[in-house]
Design a protein that fits this description.
By secondary structure, this protein is α/β, with parallel strands linked by helices. The protein contains nine helices and eleven strands. This is LysR family transcriptional regulator.
Amino acid sequence: MDLKQIRYFCAIADAGSFSAGARRAYVTQPTLSAAIAGLEAELGVRLFDRRARGTALTTEGQRVLAHARAVLRETERLRAAALPAAQAAPRTLGLLPSLPADLVAATLSALRAAAPDQAWRTEDAGGDHLRQRLAAGRYDAILTRLEPPAPGHGQKRLAGDRLALAFAAADRPAGPVTPAVLHGRPLIVRTHCEFLQAASRLLDDWQVRPQVVARTGDDGRALALVAGGVGACLMPDSLHRDGVVHVRPEGVDLVRQLGLEWIGTAPPGIAALAADGLQQVLSPPAGSATPRPARRGAAAGSVRG
C-alpha cells in the first residue's frame, strides 16, 4: 500500500461518498476507486458499503480509519522533523469562524512569542470539519469551542464567553430581560451559531415567536445590523461593536469554553501559552449588562452547550 491510498481512503470517509472524496483529493473518481479497490485487496477486507446515497464505513473500515489517520499525522511530523528549525514547514491552525477576532490575534501572537522559529497559517472551518481535519492530519491544532476530548487529544483552555442578547444601545429593554422580550421583535439569526438548536428549543419552551428579519454567517454583519437598529441577535458577549450592548437573559446560561486542541504531542509554543493573558482580550466593554438573579419559577432553567 502507499500513502495515496491512505489519503484517498480518509477523503472518502470524511466526504461520505466516492464522488465527493475524489473532489476533495483532486483526482478522478476512477483513479480513486481503483486505489481503494487495491487497498481493500491488500488488506483483505471491505472498507466501504456502497449505497444509493453515498457510502458508509464497514466495521472493518472504522477500525482501519483510526490507524490510517495516525499514519497521515505521523507522516506530516516526519516531514517537519526532517527540516532544520529555521526551515520548518508552517503549521496549520484551524479556526472556528465565530471566534472573537481579538482572541485569534492574541493566540497567534502568543504562539509566535513562545516558539519564534515556528510559523503558523490559519484556515476557517465549522466545528465538525475542524475535528475531522485535525484527525486527518490536515491541521496541527484547532482553536475552537472545547468539548470533552477524544482519546489521545490534548486541550488547553484559553478563554470563555457566554451567549447574550445583543441590542442597539438605543433599543436596550428596560428592566429584567427574559427570552420573552423577543416575542414579536425583529431578530437577526447567526446561521453558524453553535447553540442554534438549543436557542430554538429555548424559544419554543417560552412560546416566543420573534420576527426573523435577517440570517447571516458573518458576525461583523450581524453586529452592524444590530447597531443599526435592524433587530436583536443572540451572540457571544465577546463580540463587540460601538453602539451594541449585550444583555444576558435571566435563567439562561449558554457558555462557551474556548481553547486549543491537538492530537498526541502538543505543537511548539502551545504548552507555554498563558491563558490568563488571553482571557483579558475577552473582557466585556463598559455598558454590557450582567444578569440579575433569575426569578423563582423561571421556565428556562439553564442550557449549556
